[in-house]
């Protein structure tokens, strides 16, 4: 893509091709192809070495997924009667969901607390949330014995005392909320202002609903393990605090995932980002890092309170204790120290490194709880190689979908120009209302007058 | 069948009846010589129990028959009530120990039983096995299933053994 | 505009709270202490009586029409089988709802056999963890399972403190949970004992009302204090189980988890379930309040119509330039 841009091709960022009188509307196909000809599009796709890696992974992984659905879980997983949950849930569900907490975090920051200085990164955070949840559900579908029955807890039979019932309902409703939140970008892209206006109008409601649902199901995923007090190692288990541990670690997890994604985006698709995004990214990164640090230090404190509350100090001297402390040292204390130093010294590179480490730390915690420290009294289980490949394949699909959307919808860039109907119905009057900060774009006059 | 003379006519008559009912041959000691234990025969054949030989080994009746033969129950728990018990009208195991101890009818009867010491009375199958195997283990008698009763075809099918044994390629179980 | 949206939003949150309250009440009822149906049946397993003949396994296989076993039921070599690096004995699975394992007690003596099957908890973890209510604790005391609505999340297997439910992983299109159902359909419903109890030659399994089984068990301990450890496993463990055990040796020597405590599994989850209605009730007002506070301070009338609009404004400026 970069070379295409060098050749003078501009990726689609508005409804219209060209300027002034020569402008004509992009067709949907043209929008999908980013304004390139099909040949050009294919050319840039083939040139990208990352696509080749994906191609190889898909060539192996997609048949394996088909194999799983045709011949059952036993041919691709080591899921057993003792280890009912493997990597699909241990990683796919329990790790993807906290890394997707970014949606509600940034939604709250911008919409509820009115921190409009985070707006440049808000849409990325919302999208990150949506896709993370979507793929957590996809991982779940691969793992469920009878995935076609997924709607059953909604329509056929209810188990309201079950934590999973809450998770199912909350994830389903929250997915809808997130679709609505991200739909703003989609409506801009297809050029349907009515839809966008409606969603903007209910934005606060959606955001508050998002906070509630997120609090509950982030916590609920932790609470799922309170069903297995004798199976999860006491250091990873806390009847009273498990849900708070999961909820609290989701905060740095989600924020750091946004830093991580934005870092990758900046490195690999800077052409797609507009000045507003690129210019504000470092500032926003520091802001997110501060939030993540607060989350991490709180998390560290409540983890220790968890140990103290159940008087589990004795376990720290065992091998499990060493592993537990290593998880905290690498996943929590190290990034915390890096964040502190980097924020103080304004070193955004180190902040980004710390964010990647935090993401790793959260994933490690979830895999520890769901797999490694699970059944600590029985025997260890190592996932089937096919299980690992399928996990990677689904993650690759996630990356592809993520990239597909970032390339097209106005997430990293602002959609240019005012839609035609708005031009015709309302005279455009750019208000001189000053923005909160110079870096924040002025509110659009068009929508103001329509509202 | 050669019932020996006895003063207890009534008891005699009963024994005769019992013998007639299930092929019991009387022994000179006052009990039957051979007893065919066939109430539970199904998966295993009936047991041809040599009562007379076991009387010789046990030396008395109370070892197996509790207090029902009139010898008293000795000391211990049973003796608290049954030390002076007279010979009861029935002495065969099956007369007290039920074939179906857990049927709804039996459970209801047990629930109404005021003699709480007997709420845990074993069924006939357990009574046989405990009585026989308890001694056999201590005295080195046979304890294998087919030492006393051969397995029937139905038994082979039930245990999926013998000619009913699973094929080598039987599905391995998941663990 | 923002006024309308806020009013709409408040109406929405009130409806949400109402729904939550109802939902919460249901949960509270479901989560309350439940010590089993008073007339529920139980089985007393007396390990001192079991001779390891595996007849119960055979009876279960026949009654539940399970697949043929790998080895005949009179093959005692299964007691030597070990799995997962020699650490694990046999466990119930999709092909066997009950298994007998052999233990050699510390300090020698005769081996002790332990029958494993679903213990039919008073307050079953599988039931309380199931999000489609596929499990039912019947009045007769059995914990039964409805394969027609099971989604296959296997949370019940995570939750079961006895590691009982098995899953037919090898089935691609209709995998289901498989576990002992106390012969509920074929026997228990009509007052008959389960097949394993009926076949047991030693009456190691005693069947009756659970409350009577408790009485009998304590009477056995009382009558023969030298024969039994003074504990009835399952009387109180995890809220009580329908199947209970007597043993001559400490229970942890014969494969029992003696660290379960007496609270049912759901008691661990109640802390979280209790916070659910609180979050649902408090968060809307709290965060809407934050929003209003943040907006006031803002003072630019710069509230609801900002993000996303940046596009238009941006574009506008660029178009003009």
Textual characterization of the structure:
The complex is a heterotrimer of chains A (451), B (175) and C (321). Chain A has 451 residues and is mainly α. Chain A has 2 domains: 84-417, Formate dehydrogenase/DMSO reductase fold, CATH 1.20.1630.10; 418-451, no CATH class. The model of chain A is unreliable at 419-451 (pLDDT under 50). In chain A, strands 1-2 form a two-stranded antiparallel ribbon. In chain A, 67% of the residues lie in helices and 1% in strands. Chain B is mainly α and 175 residues long. Chain B is 41% helix and 7% strand. Chain B has helices at 9-22, 51-58, 62-65, 76-82, 93-96, 104-112, 124-139, 145-148, 153-158, and strands spanning 25-26, 32-37, 47-50. A 3-stranded antiparallel sheet of chain B has the order 1-2-3. In chain B, a hairpin with a 5-residue loop joins strand 1 (25-26) and strand 2. The termini of chain B are far apart. Chain C is of the alpha+beta class. Chain C has a single domain (31-264), classed as Alpha-Beta Plaits, CATH 3.30.70. Chain C has helices at residues 2-31, 55-63, 125-129, 155-159, 195-199, 210-223, 266-298, 309-320, and strands at residues 41-46, 99-103, 112-116, 135-137, 143-145, 166-167, 177-178, 205-209, 243-246. In chain C, strands 8-1-9 form a 3-stranded mixed sheet. Chain C has a two-stranded antiparallel sheet with strand order 2-3. Chain C has a two-stranded antiparallel sheet with strand order 4-5. In chain C, a hairpin with a 5-residue loop joins strand 4 (135-137) and strand 5 (143-145). The longest helix of chain C has 33 residues, at 266-298. In chain C, 50% of the residues are buried. Classes of the chains: A mainly alpha (451), B mainly alpha (175), C alpha+beta (321). Chains in contact: A-B, A-C, B-C. Chains A and C meet through helix 4, helix 7, helix 8, helix 10 and helix 11 of A and helix 1, helix 3, helix 4, strand 6 and helix 7 of C.
């Amino acid at each position: 893509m970069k070379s295409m841009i060098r050749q003078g091709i501009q990726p689609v960022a508005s409804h219209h091709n060209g300027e002034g009188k020569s402008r004509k509307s992009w067709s949907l196909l043209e929008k999908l192809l980013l304004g390139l000809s099909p040949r050009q599009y294919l050319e840039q796709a083939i040139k990208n070495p990352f696509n080749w890696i994906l191609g190889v992974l898909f060539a192996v992984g997609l048949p394996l997924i088909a194999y799983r659905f045709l011949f059952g879980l036993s041919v691709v997983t080591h899921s057993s009667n003792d280890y009912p949950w493997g990597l699909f849930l241990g990683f796919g569900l329990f790790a993807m969901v906290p890394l997707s907490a970014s949606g509600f975090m940034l939604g709250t920051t911008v919409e509820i607390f009115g921190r409009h200085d985070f707006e440049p990164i808000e849409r990325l955070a919302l999208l990150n949330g949506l896709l993370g949840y979507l793929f957590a559900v996809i991982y779940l579908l691969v793992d469920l014995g009878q995935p076609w029955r997924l709607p059953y807890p909604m329509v056929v039979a209810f188990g309201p005392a079950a934590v999973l019932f809450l998770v199912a309902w909350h994830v389903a409703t929250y997915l809808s909320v997130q679709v609505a939140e991200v739909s703003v970008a989609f409506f801009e892209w297809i050029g349907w202002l009515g839809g966008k206006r409606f969603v903007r109008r209910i934005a606060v409601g959606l955001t508050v609903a998002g906070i509630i649902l997120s609090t509950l199901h982030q916590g609920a995923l932790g609470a799922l393990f309170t069903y297995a007090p004798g199976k999860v190692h006491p250091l990873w288990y806390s009847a009273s605090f498990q849900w708070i541990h999961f909820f609290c670690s989701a905060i740095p997890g989600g924020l750091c995932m946004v830093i991580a994604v934005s870092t990758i985006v900046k490195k690999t698709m800077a052409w797609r980002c507009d000045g507003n995004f690129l210019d504000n990214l470092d500032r926003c990164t520091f802001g997110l890092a501060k939030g993540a640090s607060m989350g991490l230090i709180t998390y560290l404190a409540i983890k220790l309170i968890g140990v103290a509350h159940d008087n589990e100090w004795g376990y720290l001297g065992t091998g499990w204790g060493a592993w537990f402390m290593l998880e905290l040292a690498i996943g929590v204390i190290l990034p915390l120290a890096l964040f502190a130093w980097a924020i103080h010294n304004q070193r955004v590179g180190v902040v980004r490194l710390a964010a990647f480490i935090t993401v790793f730390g959260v994933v490690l915690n979830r895999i520890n709880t769901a797999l490694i420290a699970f059944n600590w009294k029985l025997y260890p289980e190592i996932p089937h190689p096919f299980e690992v490949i399928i996990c990677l394949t689904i993650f690759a699909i996630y990356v592809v979908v993520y990239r597909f959307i970032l390339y097209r919808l106005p997430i990293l860039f602002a959609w240019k120009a005012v839609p035609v109907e708005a031009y015709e119905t309302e005279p455009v009057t750019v208000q001189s209302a000053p923005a909160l900060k110079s870096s924040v774009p002025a509110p659009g006059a068009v929508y103001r007058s329509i509202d | 069948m050669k019932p020996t003379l006895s003063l207890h006519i009534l008891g005699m008559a009963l024994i005769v009846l019992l013998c007639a009912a299930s092929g019991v041959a009387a022994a000179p000691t006052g009990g039957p010589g051979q007893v065919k234990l066939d109430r539970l025969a199904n998966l295993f054949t009936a047991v041809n129990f040599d009562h007379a030989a076991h009387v010789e080994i046990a030396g008395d009746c109370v070892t197996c028959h509790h207090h029902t033969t009139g010898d008293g129950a000795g000391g211990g728990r049973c003796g608290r009530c049954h030390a002076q018990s007279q010979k009861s009208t029935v002495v065969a195991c099956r007369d007290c120990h039920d074939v179906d101890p857990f049927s709804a009818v039996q459970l209801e009867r047990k629930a109404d039983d005021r003699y709480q010491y007997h709420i845990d009375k074993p069924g006939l199958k357990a009574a046989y096995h405990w009585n026989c195997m308890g001694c056999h283990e201590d005295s080195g008698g046979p304890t294998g299933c087919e030492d006393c009763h051969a397995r029937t075809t139905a038994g082979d099918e039930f245990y999926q053994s013998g000619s009913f044994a699973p094929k080598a390629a039987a599905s391995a179980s998941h663990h | 505009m923002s006024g309308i949206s806020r009013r709409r939003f408040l109406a929405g949150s009130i409806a949400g709270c109402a729904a939550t309250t109802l939902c919460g009440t249901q949960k509270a009822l479901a989560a309350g202490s439940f010590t089993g149906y008073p007339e529920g049946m139980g089985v007393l397993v007396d390990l001192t009586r079991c001779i390891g003949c595996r007849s119960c396994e055979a009876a279960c296989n026949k009654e539940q029409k399970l697949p043929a076993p790998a080895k005949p039921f009179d093959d005692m070599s299964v007691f030597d089988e070990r799995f997962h690096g020699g650490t694990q004995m046999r466990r119930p699975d999709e092909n066997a709802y009950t298994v007998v394992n052999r233990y050699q007690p510390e300090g020698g003596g005769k081996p002790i056999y332990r029958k494993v099957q679903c213990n039919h908890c008073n307050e079953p973890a599988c039931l309380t963890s199931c999000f489609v209510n596929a499990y039912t604790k019947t009045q007769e005391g059995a914990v039964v399972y409805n394969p027609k609505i099971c989604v296959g999340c296997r949370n019940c297997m995570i939750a079961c403190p006895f590691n009982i439910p098995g899953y037919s992983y090898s089935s691609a299109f209709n995998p289901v949970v498989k576990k002992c159902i106390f012969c509920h359909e074929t026997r228990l419903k009509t007052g008959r004992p389960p097949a394993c109890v009926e076949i047991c030659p030693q009456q190691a399994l005693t069947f009756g009302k659970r409350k009577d089984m408790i009485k009998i068990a304590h009477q056995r301990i009382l009558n023969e204090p030298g024969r039994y450890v003074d504990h009835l496993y399952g009387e109180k463990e995890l809220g009580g189980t329908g199947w209970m055990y007597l043993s001559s040796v400490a229970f942890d020597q014969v494969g029992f988890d003696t660290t379960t405590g007496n609270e049912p599994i759901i008691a661990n989850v109640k802390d979280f379930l209790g916070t659910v209605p609180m979050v649902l009730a408090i968060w809307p007002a709290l965060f809407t309040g934050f929003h209003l506070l943040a907006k006031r301070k803002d003072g630019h009338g710069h509230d609801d119509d900002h993000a996303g609009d940046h596009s238009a404004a941006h574009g506008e400026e660029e178009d003009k330039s």
